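Lecture notes, unit on protein representations.

Consider one protein chain, 151 amino acids long.
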Amino acid sequence: MSARTKTTVAAGGAAVLLAVTAVVGGATGASASGIGKGYVPVCAQGNYGVTAEFPHRGGISTTCIPRGTCSCGYWGGTSREPIEVTGWFNTSDNSFKAGAVWYKGNSSGIGIGAEGTTSNGGAGAYMVTWQRPAGQGPSRCPSGRRGPRDP
């Protein structure tokens, strides 16, 4: 794991759930208790916009998610695959790698939060992740947060 990537995974239990909720700052539409199988909420929680790409699917990706917002969509999937998160500088069309995470849509959903700043060429940016503990929360994205692939 790179120094720029911080990963937090909730495995269950109230203490872990509270810790993860605190880490992700209670992101609207992407709480740890609300991610169903196949759903991937992506939040641009830093001072930059982000995209999330599925390279094993020919490079399909989200649209650019503006800073301070989240996008939640159903991406499904049956095999373990990476999701690569790209940050976009505020002052140019250049990009940087914010982080990557492995995901298997038929086993769980995963939330992604890109945080930090674009200072020092993106070195101040990092990524956190969270998962839905088994048996908790709804199986779909919250109302109003659905993406184009949401069934």
